[in-house]
Amino acid sequence: MDAIIIENVSKAYGEIPAVSDVSLSVRPGELFGLIGPDGAGKTTLFKILVTLLLPDKGRATVAGHDVVKDYKALRQLVGYMPGRFSLYPDLSVEENLAFFATVFGTTIKENYHLIQEIYSQLEPFKDRRAGQLSGGMKQKLALCCALIHKPEVLFLDEPTTGVDAVSRKEFWDMLRKLNERGLTTLVSTPYMDEASRCDRIAFMQTGKILAVDQPVAITRRFKKRLYGVRAADTYQLIHDLRLASFTESCYAFGEFLHLTVKSNEVTEQQIGRFLREKNHRNIEIHAIQPGIEDTFMALMTQPEPAA
Amino acid sequence: MNRFIAFVKKEFFHILRDRRTLLILFGLPLAQVLLFGFALTNEIKNAKIAILDNDKSQHSQQITNKLLASGYFQLQENLRSNHDIERAFRKGNIKLAVVFPTGFTANYEHGRSTQIQLLADASEQNTAISLTNYATAIIRDYTAERNPNAQPPLTIDVRSRMVFNPELKGAFVFVPGVMAMVLLLVSALMTSVTIARERETGTLEVLMVSPLTQGQILLGKVVPYLLLSFVNGCIIIALGVFVLHVPLNGSLLLLLSETLLFIFLALSIGIFISSLVDTQLVAMFASLMAMLLPTIFLSGFIFPIESMPKPLQIISNIIPAKYFISIVKGIMIKGAGLQYLWQPTAVLIGMSLFFMGLSLRNLKTRLS
Q1: Measured between beta carbons, which residues in chain A are less than 8 angstroms from residue B194?
Q2: Which chain A residues are within 8 Å of B206, Cβ to Cβ?
Q3: ipTM for the predicted complex
Q4: Which terminus of chain B, N or C, has less C-beta within 10 A?
């Protein structure tokens, strides 16, 4: 049976829908990513799954327990790391960990093997107050606290938001290692580049799931032709391209613009000719493979989800 | 049980590591008791007075000496004429003027009616009333000493006696009031703020997704503050008894039990407030507005309830401090036992149950 099953779950705050009719399942041992911009409903979905919110409609089970009826049993089984830093800043690293261990009826010693790799990095600072740790360190400590009771399913809500690039990479390496030991993990992130590190991902936008697939497979849903375009004046380039008759969409991705064209017949030569007419210099155009972000952008603007 | 102990331990860490909390917890009661006990007293000592002695005789001298020896008055100046009286009052350096008319002694010696004039600066009306009362009492005393047997005909001799507090000491009133105020403030404010803080930092979310029940979380919040507030209560009682010389005529055990009951009530109110608000700031304001101000103004602590307008008198019935103050006064000053205090005690118990019940009803196993 799947570790997380979500069936037609909806949740609204007053009139404003946060999650609308979401169905999703996560297999045991999967590292599953929930990708979407801020306000997509990721956090609301997380809170429903960790029994903090009641769904308005639909049902969900985690590790075989209903999130509404069996919430007490479930609270023993899940590890939850909320989006913002939620440890006690006035307690030391060790005190925080010991507190959460005791609350879940265990000790640091008993489950030390689960967190050893992560905690060994924190140990030199174990007497430091948690509030004085760096962002990356805080997240590692929070992860330790969420892991100390040996959860069956781990929920990490935007664990890498506000963390530097190096710490982010380290954090994902850790998640991967945990996952190799068979821990089912649901992680949400607004960063597209992190999506490729998951087994499967779901795109979420305005409370709906747009697509669910493996990171590589999901890019295959991008059927249109995609070009990387560069020229001397990037600002003018994006302006001109967005007005061009053949353009479907044009977004800036680092030094290149990613240009999606309306018809597959539009060639590099055509685009080049158009740009030269507009007096662009140092023009560079070539066809590229769509990435996850391209796919997400494309799915986002589609009226009907491709899933 | 381990969980619960760990939670209580954590709470103690929070309290002991936050200087602000510590300061409020232990600095506040000390400052309040000493402030109210010494500075904000309505007793009058060494009030400056002026004497206009037109008689300059034995009796006027002796009365003057008796006035000045009482400790209430201090001679600022000897006046020479009626004009000086007004000038001295205008300067504002005297509170009371005593005028002996010419022929004062002569009249007195011959058994004729004689007069002394007391003029008081009534721009401070309470002081003026007290001063004239003190002076009148001293002068009456003087005549009574002189001729103990002489009962002037057709005079009604009013003899009043101040029961329980013959010296009319302000500390008798302030100590119970300060105790109620500090305990309410510390208990209710602190608990409501600490729960709101967990909500703000997001740790409450993590605690909720844990095997800890909401009841355990609440109790874990209450226990440390119950203990600390109780220590606080004892400090205030000790300060009152040993420093401000408030008597402890009744049972100490009863007093401590009633104090515990009141702390429990304050904590219930604190939890109730915290179940309604989301942030520390709101919790703080709610506690201050809902607790501190009514406690100061409507509990009879500073302004007597009997002299309030009827609507305020009715409102004062829902102020917990009112009952606690009357209990503390009853035990400490009147030496009353539970048989006299069961009514306010019952009200406090009822209020505690009410707020605990409300908070338990508001308890959520989930967010929102």
Answers
A1: none
A2: 80, 82, 86, 100, 145
A3: 0.80
A4: N
